[in-house]
Amino acid sequence: MIMQGKKPKDENFGFFTSRLYKVFSKTFPSMKSFYSFILSDIANYEFSSVLDIGCGPGILDVKIAQMFPKAKIYGIDPSKDMIKQAGSLAKRAGIKNLEFAIGKNTEIPFDHKFDLAITTLSFHHWAVKCEALGYIAKYVAAGGKIAIYEFLKPEKGLGISGSHSLSVKEANSYSNIPGLAPAKVSTEKGFIKAILEKPSK
């Protein structure tokens, strides 16, 4: 489908909203459970580099960098306020294997391949999801993965998270992305993950 007029834009957090998001990420019990869900999942994969797309204030990336000190972790976000907070957090924590930069799902500011690209509670904001996934695939190493993590949206209604969530039906629809194998979708305790792998050959 060819879209007319202005190209849709992703949501971009400003000075106040980025700080509210940081408070939410650090204090809400559901977020702690969500981070545990992600960390336990990525522990199943082998990687030396991770790209977090839509990293927000960097709370999860600091945890990943601490958990996997031999890996290099990169976080990007279109919000300069988020990146500023993320950089400050990493500096206070003394993290050396972590780098943040302004960027987004269709503008990755790094010139190398990643073993694992993740997006957490960001995918639902993306304006052009299929286009973005195809673009990200170019930055994933052969045999690498793109992992989408979101709150689970029920098949009927919006649930507690409203539109800030992802349904199984939608997640399964991302199975014809150039350069990626069909999505493998699973759910757990109100969360959902979709893994898209880049074939080794």
Outline the fold blueprint.
Elements: H1 15-27, H2 29-42, E1 49-53, H3 59-67, E2 72-77, H4 80-93, E3 98-102, E4 114-120, H5 129-137, E5 140-151, H6 168-172, E6 184-188, E7 191-197
Description:
The protein is of the alpha/beta class and 201 residues long. It has a single domain (15-197), classed as Vaccinia Virus protein VP39 (Rossmann fold), CATH 3.40.50.150. Helix content is 32%, strand content 23%. It has six helices and seven strands; from the N terminus they run ααβαβαββαβαββ. It has helices spanning 15-27, 29-42, 59-67, 80-93, 129-137, 168-172; strands spanning 49-53, 72-77, 98-102, 114-120, 140-151, 184-188, 191-197. It has a seven-stranded mixed sheet, with helices on both faces. Strand 2 (72-77), helix 4 and strand 3 form a beta-alpha-beta unit. The protein is globular. The protein starts with 14 loop residues before the first helix and ends with a strand. The model is unreliable at 1-8 and 14-24 (pLDDT under 50).
Give a concise summary.
With 201 residues, the protein is α/β, with parallel strands linked by helices.
